[in-house]
Amino acid sequence: MFLAIREMRFARARYLLIATIMVLVAFLVLFVTGLAQGLAYDNAASVKNMPATHFIMEQDSNHRFTRSHIDQNLLQEAAQIAGADNAEPLGVRMATVIPTGGTEKVDVTLLAINPGGWLASKVTDGSPLSEEVKGRVLVDQTMVDYGVKIGTTIEDQASGTKWIVDGFVKNESFSHTPAVFLNKQDWVELQAQATTRQGADPASSIVFNAIAIKAVPEKVTELQDALPNSEVITKSEAVSAIPGYKEEQGSLMMMIAFLFVISAFVLAVFFYVITIQKTSQFGILKAIGTRTAYLAGSVALQVFVLSVGSLSISVVLIQLFKSILPSSMPFQLEYSTLLFTCLIFIAMSLVGSLFSVWKVTKIDALDAIGRTMA
C-alpha cells in the first residue's frame, strides 16, 4: 500500500489524467443506467405499480394487453378460483384525446379499473373515481403540461366521448404515454360504441383486456389448468411484452455493457503501459527482496483507488445533474441500482488490471537489472 500511494503522489499528473477519464466514463455509465431505468419505468409504470402477481390474458395474444380479450365468463371463473378479492378486470386501450379549448392532441392510454378495487391508483389531487358517477376520469400529472387541470374536459378523438378530469395520479404511464383511468361503466360504454360501429352485438362489448390477480403458485397452476384459451403470465412477462420495451432496454443495456468494457480496457492499457515503463524498477525491487505478490498488489490497489475515487466524484456529479434535469425526462437511479452499478464498475476495473498484474509476475529481476546497467 505504501508503494502504491507513494507512486501515485509522485506521478500526480499522470494519475490525475487517468482519473479524469475514469470520472467521465463512470458518469456516462451512471447516466445511461439512470436513463435506462427511467425509460423502463416510464414505459410500464402503471403495470409495475399494480400490486398484481400475475395477469390472465387471451391465448396467442403474445402477452400483450391490447391484443387480449377477456369476457365476463372468464372473469367469473377466475374469481371463483383465485377469490373475488384477488381478481380484478383491467381494460387497456391506446387513444388520442384533445383537452377542452386546446388544439394539441395528446396520446394517452385508457385504463379501465374497478374504482373500489386494489388496482385503483392513489389520488394526489382531486377526487377518486366512483363506480356510480359516469364521465369522470383520473389522469397522470404529466397531463398538466398540456393545460389539463381538474374540471377540464378531454375528448376521445376516435369515439367523440368526453370525460371530465376529476383528479390526478402520479407516475402512471403506459408505453410512454400518460395514463387515464376510467371506471367500468365508461369503459363498457366506450366498448359498446366501438362494437356498434363494427356492426357487432353490443352485448359482446363487455370485454376487458386482462385479469389482474394476486395468487400463490398453487392457485396459478390451478388457474392455468381450469381456464381454457387463456394464459396466466407473471407481471414481468407482461411488462416485457409492452411494445418496444425489450428493444429499448436491449439497446441501452448493450450501451452500458460496452461502457463497462471500455472502462476496463482504458485502465488495462494505461496500467500496462506504465508497467512496461517501470519494468526496470520492478526488477530492482524484486532483486532486493520485494515479493511479486506485493508488487502485483500495489498495481491492483492503484486501480482500486482510482476506480473508487472516480466513482465517488461521478456519483456526486450524477446527483447534481439529476437535480437539474427537467421533470419530463425519464431518469431514475435508485440506490440499489446505483450500488450495483458501482460494484460492477469496480469489478470490471480490477479485471482490467489483471493484465498488468500478470506482466509484473513475469518480470525477471536479472534481465531488468541488466537492462538498466546497459
From TrEMBL:
<feature type="transmembrane region" description="Helical">
    <location>
        <begin position="252"/>
        <end position="274"/>
    </location>
</feature>
<dbReference type="Pfam" id="PF02687">
    <property type="entry name" value="FtsX"/>
</dbReference>
<dbReference type="InterPro" id="IPR003838">
    <property type="entry name" value="ABC3_permease_C"/>
</dbReference>
<keyword id="KW-1003">Cell membrane</keyword>
<feature type="transmembrane region" description="Helical">
    <location>
        <begin position="338"/>
        <end position="358"/>
    </location>
</feature>
<keyword id="KW-0812">Transmembrane</keyword>
<dbReference type="InterPro" id="IPR051125">
    <property type="entry name" value="ABC-4/HrtB_transporter"/>
</dbReference>
<dbReference type="GO" id="GO:0005886">
    <property type="term" value="C:plasma membrane"/>
</dbReference>
<feature type="domain" description="ABC3 transporter permease C-terminal">
    <location>
        <begin position="254"/>
        <end position="364"/>
    </location>
</feature>
<keyword id="KW-0472">Membrane</keyword>
<keyword id="KW-1133">Transmembrane helix</keyword>
<comment type="similarity">
    <text>Belongs to the ABC-4 integral membrane protein family. HrtB subfamily.</text>
</comment>
<feature type="transmembrane region" description="Helical">
    <location>
        <begin position="294"/>
        <end position="318"/>
    </location>
</feature>
<protein>
    <recommendedName>
        <fullName>Putative hemin transport system permease protein HrtB</fullName>
    </recommendedName>
</protein>
<comment type="function">
    <text>Part of the ABC transporter complex hrt involved in hemin import. Responsible for the translocation of the substrate across the membrane.</text>
</comment>
<keyword id="KW-0813">Transport</keyword>
<comment type="subunit">
    <text>The complex is composed of two ATP-binding proteins (HrtA), two transmembrane proteins (HrtB) and a solute-binding protein.</text>
</comment>
